[in-house]
Amino acid sequence: MPSSSEDIIGLYQRHASTWDKDRTRSLFEKAWLDRFLAIAGHNASILDLGCGMGEPIARYLIEQGCSVTGVDTSHTFIDLCRNRFPDQEWIVGDMRNRVPGKQFQGVLAWDSFFHLNHADQRGMFSVFRRYAAPKAALLFTSGSSYGEAIGEYQGDPLYHASLDTAEYESLLQEQGFEVVSHVVDDATCGHHTVWLARLNR
């Protein structure tokens, strides 16, 4: 069955409750989140784009004293977030569109940005910049090389795409971000390819 980036919204909404049960809470991302917070600051304001159901990443950030604004297209995910963390801000929305009307000390797109197609990924870097306060941290995951890949979840095709390393570096630089750390296929983090950057403006 063919798949595109536009199918992702429906997939996660259909399977939101199952994903909530399946998603590990082991926080294998902790080392990267700690590096992110070392730039953004503990007690930072964080924008979590594609926040899912808020666990384990948003929970960890909240436990570190951060204020979190989460954005996700799935209203089921956002309802779960609101029930779990009622003191934070949760928005049903698309990361590609301007949703919050403010800037943040940290911008996060973990395991969400890579579901966008190539053109939409390119367009996201100006969105990251728009949301980033001066010297803000940016953390996102990507693929390891240029291309598209179709995975599977609950019998539905699951779309992923990636630009190549040089293009990500160029897009970050154009928006004033400096790469702090970049690891391809990080074996200590579930073989994720991770980018951590800082806004220099």
Automatic annotation (TrEMBL):
Domain of life: Bacteria
SUPFAM superfamilies registered for this protein in UniProt: S-adenosyl-L-methionine-dependent methyltransferases
Biological processes, Gene Ontology terms: methylation
GO molecular function per UniProt: methyltransferase activity
Swiss-Prot/TrEMBL keywords: Methyltransferase, Transferase
Domain Methyltransferase: 46-134
Protein name: Class I SAM-dependent methyltransferase
